[in-house]
Amino acid sequence: MIQNDYADFDVPQNLKFKTLDIIRMGGLQCSAQIAPDNFAGVLQAPNKIIRATVELSFSVANKDIIVHGTLRGEREVECARCLKHVTQPFNETFAETYSIKTEIIDIMYVVKQTLALTEDIRFLCDPDCKGLCAQCGHDLNDGPCGCQPENLSPFAVLKGKFNK
Description:
This protein has helices at residues 19-25, 107-118, and strands spanning 2-4, 16-18, 28-34, 48-60, 64-78, 85-99, 104-106. The chain is mainly beta. A hairpin with a 6-residue loop joins β5 (64-78) and β6 (85-99).
């Protein structure tokens, strides 16, 4: 599904625009849905893009083309504590300037960079996520598992050794 303000212009699926076309039209405003397979390898596995739409506005200045974009969609991410997969919306903006001497403006590159730079190091399904039991792997968000807590201190074996 592609929409643009210029009936004679087809938005390229790979989001690589010819600079001469944009100059000829005096700018361009368009939007396009991007297939999720275009984002393979952008996010760290198992996180992935489910849906993405980009809205673009190209403005022609004296020696430059200025691009403002908004990237919206959803990504599936894995919680760092309990390993549940949750859907998370994203809404990112970007702006780039290109010389009019540039032949091709590759917006897909900018879109991928924007997504990669906004990926959190750790996703949490909930700020209060309790995670998994270190002994049995039970999801502690569903309730206690019944395991007896172990003393995880490496010095626990020394307790009582030096009492006289």
